Recover the amino acids of this structure.
């Protein structure tokens, strides 16, 4: 039964709305890029890198994630990284991807903004031409840095705004509430950018309120802890807010203790527009279909849940309405 549901989920066109491109850096590529660029890493083998991917919370992971980025040096590195993700997710029938990148993770260590974004954008156009996959790019601000640094990044992005759909907010959540970035989100909005933010991953429901009220987000990344507040849930339902939920990430970072306790099914039952995403697939054990497999098994999802999740991914995307309708119609044509 689960095998049939898994085949059905694979066949459905899907959109990925929460994917950090730097989090798709597989140990093999990390190892090869370290060699190619003569970057010292504290690992002697791919196996050692893989063994280091053990985390008990978000900060544990972020420390390794930022260390891993050190091998990304040239435009070609960013191109290879992005192309590898697009090829891999295509195999899971991801037809559209809205990809985060962390420019400050690169500029902070002396790699220019232009190098990172050029490599990424070239891969995105190639995926469109080679296999018809559509994409959007979302530029995230690192919330552990001051708002002034986010303003500098927004300024650097100005020549590239035609290629950037939205800004986002990621990195260490607790102690860095959305309110810290109210002004830069307002400036981004005035430039015509869409707005998303990580909130309620480790942070309290108040952070989700702030993301809604102060940042005026168009989409909520994670949002798990919103379920602690009934009024907040009603508000998210009423606003038709899409939540980009990341099951394997939640398990690996201790946001849930057991996949059987994951709130995804409950979110759907409450009428929340929840979606399935891989967050940082190379660190958390899997891409889109690995995430579907984990929740189908643990939460006993049925055909209707799976179809809803696929539909939500396009409804909650930043695609133009016509393309959304086409993808939704394609989903309706797939039978279980
Ligand atoms: N950066 C990359 N992955 C992240 C996550 N899950 N939460 C916050 N920041 C991140
Ligand atoms: Zn994330």
């Amino acid at each position: 039964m689960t095998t049939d549901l898994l085949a059905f989920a694979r066949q459905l066109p899907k959109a990925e709305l929460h994917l950090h491109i730097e989090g798709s850096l597989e140990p093999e590529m990390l190892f090869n890029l370290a060699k190619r660029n003569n970057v010292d890493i504290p690992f002697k083998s791919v196996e050692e890198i893989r063994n280091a991917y053990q985390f008990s919370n978000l900060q544990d992971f972020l420390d390794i994630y930022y260390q891993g980025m050190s091998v990304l040096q040239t435009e070609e590195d960013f191109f290879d990284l992005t192309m590898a993700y697009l090829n891999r997710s295509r195999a899971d029938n991801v037809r559209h991807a809205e990809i985060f990148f962390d420019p400050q993770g690169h500029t902070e260590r002396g790699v220019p903004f232009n190098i990172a974004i050029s490599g990424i954008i070239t891969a995105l156009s190639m995926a469109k031409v080679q296999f018809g996959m559509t994409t959007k790019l979302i530029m995230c601000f690192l919330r552990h840095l001051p708002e002034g640094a986010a303003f500098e990044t927004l300024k650097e992005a100005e020549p590239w705004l035609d290629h950037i759909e939205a800004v986002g907010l990621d990195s260490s959540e607790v102690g860095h509430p959305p309110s810290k970035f109210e002004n830069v989100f307002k400036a981004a909005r005035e430039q015509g950018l869409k707005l998303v933010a990580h909130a309620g991953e480790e942070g309290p429901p108040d952070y989700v309120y702030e993301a809604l009220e102060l940042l005026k987000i168009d989409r909520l990344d994670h949002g798990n802890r919103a379920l602690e507040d009934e009024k907040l849930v009603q508000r998210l339902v009423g606003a038709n807010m899409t939540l980009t939920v990341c099951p394997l990430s939640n398990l690996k970072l201790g946001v849930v203790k057991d996949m059987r306790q994951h709130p995804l099914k409950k979110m759907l039952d409450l009428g929340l527009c929840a979606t399935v995403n891989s967050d940082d697939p190379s660190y958390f054990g899997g891409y889109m279909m690995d995430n579907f497999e984990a929740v189908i098994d643990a939460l006993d999802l049925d055909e209707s849940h799976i179809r809803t999740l696929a539909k939500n991914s396009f409804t909650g995307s930043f695609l133009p309405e016509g393309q959304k309708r086409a993808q939704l119609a394609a989903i309706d044509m797939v039978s279980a």
